[in-house]
Specification:
Number of strands: 6
Strand order of the largest sheet: 4-5-3-6
Radius of gyration: 23 Å
Mean pLDDT: 88
Strand content: 25-35%
Distance between the termini: 60 Å
Largest sheet: 4 strands, antiparallel
Length: 120
């Protein structure tokens, strides 16, 4: 233990702060309820194969460092063709904002990523 001398022969023992909590686990995000906006589509997988492949792809995108990654059921959004699970990254207010984030997706291996407007 280390202490700070208060006077000769007297020490004050400073309490040791506990270690910071671990960072939160990376989790997939849902699309905000009833919100229109722009996103980056990383991949679209046929829903006939189930949701598991899309969830695995989304977790891989998180692992690669992409932010705000989630999976949409295209049948629930009027701006998307039904029959797909869409792996997305980010929720943006404008096409320009989404477009500027595509570079990161391309650098992380999603060369086919593109911006898309999402409308409930």
């Amino acid at each position: 233990m280390t202490g700070l001398p208060l006077s000769w022969g007297t020490f004050f023992w400073a309490p040791v702060a506990p270690p910071p909590p671990p960072p939160p686990a990376k989790a997939l995000v849902p699309w905000p309820v009833a919100r229109s906006g722009w996103t980056i589509v990383l991949d679209s997988l046929p829903s006939v194969n189930g949701k598991a492949p899309a969830l695995a792809e989304a977790r891989q995108a998180l692992h690669l460092g992409l932010k705000k990654v989630g999976v949409l059921d295209s049948a629930r959004f009027s701006s998307l063709h039904p029959g797909y699970f869409v792996v997305f990254a980010g929720v943006y207010d404008s096409q320009a904002a989404a477009q500027s984030a595509i570079i990161d997706a391309h650098q992380k291996g999603y060369g086919g990523a593109y911006p898309r407007r999402i409308t409930p």
